[in-house]
Amino acid sequence: MKKVNLKEKLSKFSDHWNPRIVGELNGQQVKLAKLKGEFVWHKHDEEDELFYVLKGRLRMMYRDREETIEEGEFIIVPRGVEHKPVAEKEVSVMLFEPASTLNTGNTQNERTREDLDRI
Amino acid sequence: MKKVNLKEKLSKFSDHWNPRIVGELNGQQVKLAKLKGEFVWHKHDEEDELFYVLKGRLRMMYRDREETIEEGEFIIVPRGVEHKPVAEKEVSVMLFEPASTLNTGNTQNERTREDLDRI
Question: For the Cupin type-2 domain, which residue ranges apply (chains A, B) (predicted)?
Answer without folding.
Answer: 37-94
